[in-house]
Design goal:
- 2 copies of one chain form a homodimer.
- The first copy, chain A, has 86 residues and is of the alpha+beta class.
- Chain A has one domain.
- Chain A is built from 2 helices and 2 strands; from the N terminus they run E-E-H-H.
- The first copy, chain A, has a two-stranded antiparallel sheet with strand order 1-2.
- In chain A, strand 1 and strand 2 form a beta hairpin.
- In chain A, helix 1 crosses helix 2.
- At the A-B interface, strand 2, helix 1 and helix 2 of A face strand 2, helix 1 and helix 2 of B.
């Protein structure tokens, strides 16, 4: 995010609103990430239709972080297991 | 999320607002996830103080998803590399 020199600016639509994402990442990666968040927000809205936009976005961030931190823990455990084998 | 039978309900505070998280996960894991999102939102607000609460939460979800999808790709590549070695 931001407007630093050398960064590409890509516009994506998430939950019906446009966001400008600035960064050095591939445009295709940025669209993949935006679509991922948009899908996760749709799923969350389907389960909890009474949430306002902010709650929806925060709880989507919580669900994605849950998956992310579980994956990181799993990698940590596998790496420890490997170290034990060597 | 939700109020299904057999699920624990844990209240967490993210960006100054309380959220009730329902699920079978450990309470300590739920607090870890909530703190992670809260910290990421604080970082995002520091860099982009002009964002409203919804934009802040959506762009935080985008940043976390960026890290998550990069990690998943990296694991996929390492797994392919291993398959090639065997």
């Amino acid at each position: 995010m931001g407007e630093e020199v050398g960064k590409r600016r890509t516009t994506v639509k998430i939950n019906g609103q446009n966001y400008v994402i600035a960064g050095k990442a591939d445009v295709s990666h940025i669209h993949e990430v935006a679509n991922f968040v948009d899908q996760k927000m749709k799923e969350m809205r389907r389960i909890n239709p009474y949430l306002d936009k902010t709650q929806l976005a925060v709880l989507t961030a919580v669900n994605i972080s849950d998956e992310f931190l579980r994956l990181k823990k799993q990698i940590g455990q596998e790496s420890k297991k490997k170290d034990g084998e060597n």
